[in-house]
Every structure is written in C-alpha cells, then in structure tokens.
Amino acid sequence: MKQFMVLAGVVAALTWSFSTQAQDLSSELAACASIKNPLERLVCFDDIAAGKSATSVGANPDAAKGAAKAAGKGLGNARAVGKKEAESEFGSEHLARNSEGDDGDEDKIYITIVSHSENGLGKIRFETSNGQVWQQVSAERFAIDTSGKYYLERGLMSSYYLGREGQNRRTQVKRIK
Question: Which stretches are tagged as biased composition: Basic and acidic residues (predicted)?
C-alpha cells in the first residue's frame, strides 16, 4: 500500500509539472504573438524554439530590437547575402541538389543570354552570362535575340518566367543547371 501511495505521488507531481510547463509555453507563445514587428516576433518564436525564455525578449523591446538587428546582420538572413550570390541562387529550387527549399528574396533579375538553342518541339534552352542554364516549360513560341535585355521573374508556386524588356510577353522557364 505504501508503494502505491509513493507511485501515485510521483505520477501526480509529474502531471502537475508537465501542465505548468505547458501553461508556461502557451503564455510565452501568446507573448510572442502580441509583438507587432514581424522580425521581432520571429526572433521571439526562434528563442522559444531554442529553449530560451521568450518573456525576457518579449518584455524587453530593446532586447528584441537588438536581436532583430543581429539577425539582420547576416546570421541567416537572406537579405544580407551579396547580390552576386543571390543571383547565382536564383531559381535553384528547381535543381535536385538544393533540398533545403529556401527561396531567395529577389523577385526579378536582369540577365544576359550568351547562347540559346531550340529543340524539336520548339522549346528554347538558353545559357546566361553567369553560367545558369534554363529551359522553356510552356508551349508558346518565344523568340530570343541575344542583343536584347532579358529578365527572369519569380512567379507563383516556384515558377519562373523569361521576359524581354519593352515587350509584354513572357514564357515560363525552369532552371536545369
């Protein structure tokens, strides 16, 4: 009987401990959700995921701003990546080697087409001056003149479009190299 009482006491203590931890977590999440600035809110949620107390960051806006500035100075922020590197990563989610699934934050880049070819179905394949190789996905005709100024634009659901400056036409493409 004494063993049963000890076991019941241990179970009750553990249950109480887990319920208070859950209440603490929900109050910390609520504190993070009430932060207006999106970057500060993200830093707060990241702190909770890392096991830090969010109430210390959420209650102290100066600490949250400092953490947000630190995050903006290159500690994993895509905007801090140099323009050259951002251009080289543009469209790389189509490549098999990129399994991270992270999107760059450029929506449109201007390119120079150095060579292009057309397959038997009339779809174009082109190489840019920075070594990227793209292929047309959609079926419409799209003429390429290597002296024109072209751009690649991000669309919805990981789609990309090739367009020419001064024209209102574009065609869907995917990066293959």
Answer: 82-100
